[in-house]
Amino acid sequence: MTTPTPPTPLQRVAVGLLVVFAEAAWPPDPSPSWARYDLLADPVGWSLVLWGVVALVRAEPGFALARVAAAVAGMVSLPLWLPQLRHLLDAPTEWAASLPQLAFCLVLARLVARAAGEHDDPRVARRFTVLAYGVGVVALLPVVVLGGDVPALAPAAALLALVVDVALVWSLFAVHRRTWLGGPGPGDGRTTAARPRGEGDGRRAG
Fold this sequence. Notes:
Number of domains: 1
Oligomer: single chain
Number of helices: 7
Strand content: under 5%
Largest sheet: 2 strands, antiparallel
Number of strands: 2
Structural class: mainly alpha
Distance between the termini: 35 Å
């Protein structure tokens, strides 16, 4: 019987970000209309993210800045989970409140890219560098949409944000086994010793 392996640091971070990015509004028909709670509460997601980042920092101290960014984003998410407060925010204030979340994603992507470069993994370095640029564009597009009064760009900005969110989570799952990211390495960590070929083992000598 195999012993289940605990989740890796980046698996915890990826699952936490899934909770943060996704939304399950309840009740479906509230009164007043804004009185909807997100069952996938962002503070819960950030707790998972922070759990993963703390383990990541133990494996690689260079990720300490991501731990700070996750803690700040988690604290900001606490009051924003309440619809009684959230519905009072106008569009510019809502964008400002999202900046800690975007800052964490940007910091994490940049730190993974840097660590990949230090460990001679150029493919991962390129992937997370592109993701970091994507997060930066997502953070700045609302300035154009709101400040420049270009509402026609809003659907494109929302679509780009979705693509970047999905790509970031998928990429974290894709690289979570790297030992320099606190993972166990490739495969399941088990090795099979070579067994000498003996008589009666069902194999014929070539």
